[in-house]
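Cross-check.
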Amino acid sequence: MYNLTDSAAVRSLLTKHGFNFSKGLGQNFIIDPEICPDMVEMSGINREYGVIEIGPGIGVLTRELCLRAGKVVSIEIDKRLLPILGETVGGFENLKIINADVLKTDLKRLIADEFGDMPVCVCANLPYYITSPVIMDLLEKKPGLKFVTVMVQKEWADRIISPVGSREAGAVTAAVNYYSEPKKLFNVSKNSFMPAPKVDSSVIKMDIRSAPPVGAEDEKFFFSVVKSAFGQRRKTAVNSLSSGLGISKEIISAALAECGFEPTVRAETMTMEQFCGLSNCILRKSRAD
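Predicted model, tokenized:
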């Protein structure tokens, strides 16, 4: 059995299969032996859980998941890795590997077909370039997950766990907090990977909410307001919202005043509750106009 956290053993394995890293797929394999066990343990995964892994690579995290979870389905887009995974983790009877693009995969159907009545979560080391689209796909489409634990770029993680209403927060912060309760588990040095990326990473866990923390009258419009407000964050909320929503400044100004905001307020100072109240107010005023 290969020691998948030994760089020399990994190079030997990759050479054997004629594998070269793809920058386009953001491939960085974990070689720190403590990370994956900690990631799985701190997630709370046990034999009761079914787990979806995205981008298993050579199977470092996959192996830990198979040792702890009831069933694991790993989705890998790079077919060159399939024979490697067959060699490194192919012996696990509770593992199924699917060669597919997760963003084109019907996760609701996959969960129904593969896991039955098991509680299901996601645990993955995500390539940086697809972090936001994958996370939002997992949250918005509501496939029936209990939680999502992922390793992501540290800067992205810090933004996500920042309170909505702080300078570090953005539209994706509001979206993630709307659907889940995010928390950071631990940081990971860039030297823990082969090849080493340019930045450090963090492992975050997002517990899926049973209901949103705020009562948006129109969820789609609420997210349009949030996206528009942060889309031009150097501008005042009046200008960014009017431009982004295609609604007159008069209506936006009236809604802001009704919600108790100064005319010069900026999106980065607004909390989730304030965004929701403003969204509901703008919606009512625009419909009455």
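The chain has two domains: 7-208, 219-288. The longest helix spans residues 272-288. Passed to J.P. for a second look.
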